[in-house]
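Provenance and format

Records in this collection were gathered into a single text stream. Each protein contributes a sequence line and a token line. The two records reproduced below are adjacent in the stream.
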Amino acid sequence: MKPLHKVTIHHRQKNRTITFDVPEGEYILHSFESHGEKLPFSCRNGCCTTCAVKVLSGEIDQADGIGLSTEMRAKGYALLCIARANGPLELETQDEDEVYEMQFGNYFGQVKSQPGSPFDI
């Protein structure tokens, strides 16, 4: 039998806190959904930021995802759809636009268009 890890999610958008024991190796989003909890998600592939959370405590395995930069991961952000608990965790849901802006916002406006390109304004 797989070990269970207590995972607490502070769901900011719903102003509530949810806690379940998640089997080691199981995706956190899937585990919470199996208990009837609806959490934010979109792609389920670790490519977007809809299910982004901030890790408040504990360690998380999100090796399957490409939707967050190394810098964002180092700042404690994770994606629930591809995240697995390595032990007890406390997480907080984030605003998708906020996380997207933190990750990609500094790149907008830096791209210079070439004359004749579709981006030439």
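Adjacent record:
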Amino acid sequence: MHAQPHVAVVGATGAVGVEMMKSLERRRFPLRELTLLASARSVGKTFEFQGKTIAVKELKPDSFAGVDIALFSAGGSVSREFAPVAARAGCVVIDNSSAFRMDDSVPLVVPEINASDVRSHKGIIANPNCTTAIALMAIYPLHKAFFCKRIFASSYQAVSGTGAKAIEELRRQVDQIVHGQPVTKEVYPHQIAFNVLPHIDSFLPSGYTKEEMKMENEGRKIMHHPTFRASVTCVRVPVYRAHSIAVSAEFEKPVTLDAARAALAQAPGLDVVDDPANKVYPMPLFTAEKDNCEVGRLRLDCALDNGLCFWVSGDQLVKGAALNAVQIAEELLKP
């Protein structure tokens, strides 16, 4: 890998694509050139990057000549079509879609947990589901300390996880309700303003949704923990940005609050924000646009043996997507 790689962002005009550029710039990623790629309708849009103006080009099969690393965030169908093309051109793809996550030949990486898996790539590396990544930032340090058998969790997922149109839908509906107008909906099957939807992604025959099963399936792969079990309910809430997850985790070894705190305090990329007496706990309002995730509301679970309850918040566009991809790219540059 070139010490100063040529980087491409695929899906550059989307919420995650824009965040990828911000992460590259904020972390002073040592790139020599940045190419922005998107669909034909976005061609000519411009973005400022490190004091330069860069115009978006159309994504085509020949777009990857001379590119070293491509950060993909343009959806599963685009990834399935173009990621193998990019890899064949000698480019390493870091893909934010679900297309390759469960492919045995593709590493699925959260650098704070399994950075060494990056080394086994065959041209494509997968970024995990945003809710899974944020939850695992707290689950994994506890798993290392006490061995996590299973979790029960509920997610509180922001509308920006669905994209820019969903953010606009929430804004519009709040405005409509405040002004006594009829509520219109396009993105979600029900009103999202002043409501919560226990429905993210499509339903499976089991009654769980695809999103809910990602926590177990991706968690097993990332943590190298094939017996990990997760029963999750994923809920869309009327929050613009940053996801939260309430977790009850059961461990093999006895857990104390002091030992749990110590394990979490040492975890990279995670801040312990836990002082309920002073009304201090993680909230999406304060984790939005932050690199680190936050964990709080720590307590021994009163319904599980060796159980711990906690609450995690993190920005799903940052650690849940763009930042994680850039951190993987940083791993690729390490000797």
